[in-house]
Design a protein that fits this description.
- The chain has about 220 residues and is an alpha/beta fold.
- Helices cover about 40% and strands about 20% of the residues.
- The chain has an eight-stranded mixed sheet with strand order 1-2-4-3-5-6-7-8, with helices on both faces.
């Protein structure tokens, strides 16, 4: 069953939503939130990875600043999420990601990371700074970090109608990371989030299949 656990991190104690598979785990996955916290949607994604055979752990990255944050998707909630994201910062969030990965690795699990939006950019850092195979869904803030070399396999998903990641930004990813597959979808930002107007079921299903194939190969 899925439940909250307490995680010790360099940023202090952080809660994390943990979901375990019913059988022998295929590996571990650190699930990295959007700017809306480890809300019902992110918990559902975490549980979906468990259904696919992985021990999945979603650390509450806002906890060092404010605990128990679960935001909706309206304008005010988005502004609050940006505020909290900036207050936590990438370095502190990356430290939390490393602690979550270490917990799973200490259980003997080969571990990767999958992140969405802000978490998509953190997935890149999980790879570059912690050596985790990683999948980035529409990470719009990765460009400043592209000079950090990858240390493991990496996969990117982008929507071609995502105004936050224009074609020239995607091209910069291709130039900097020629060995990292980049998949494009006729979709907007947050096409995987099955609540809200941007959800695209076909793109989400294809990206999910590609993500599971990637993890199966990278964590074997």
């Amino acid at each position: 069953m899925a439940h909250w656990i307490d995680l010790d991190t360099p940023a202090g104690p952080v809660r994390a939503w943990r979901a375990d598979p019913s059988g022998v785990p295929l590996g571990g996955v650190v699930v990295l939130q959007e700017i809306f916290g480890v809300n019902e949607h992110i918990r559902a994604v975490t549980e979906r990875f468990a259904d696919a055979g992985y021990v999945a752990l979603a650390p509450a990255l806002f906890d060092p600043v404010e605990r128990e944050v679960e935001l909706d998707y309206d304008k005010d909630a988005t502004a609050r999420g940006v505020e909290l994201r900036n207050a936590v910062g990438f370095d502190r969030a990356s430290d939390i990601v490393g602690a979550a990965a270490h917990l799973l690795q200490s259980e003997g699990l080969r571990t990767g990371a999958v992140g969405f939006c802000w978490g998509g950019s953190l997935a890149f850092l999980a790879n570059a700074r912690h050596g985790l195979p990683a999948v980035s869904y529409y990470g719009a803030r990765t460009l400043p970090f592209l000079g950090e070399p990858l240390r493991a396999p990496m996969l990117f998903h982008f929507g071609t109608r995502d105004a936050s990641i224009p074609p020239e930004a995607i091209e910069r990813h291709r130039e900097a990371l020629p060995n990292a597959p980049i998949h494009l979808y006729d979709a907007d930002h947050a096409f995987n989030r099955d609540v809200g107007d941007h959800y695209d079921a076909g793109s989400a299903a294809l990206a999910w299949t590609r993500t599971l194939d990637f993890l199966a190969d990278a964590l074997k």
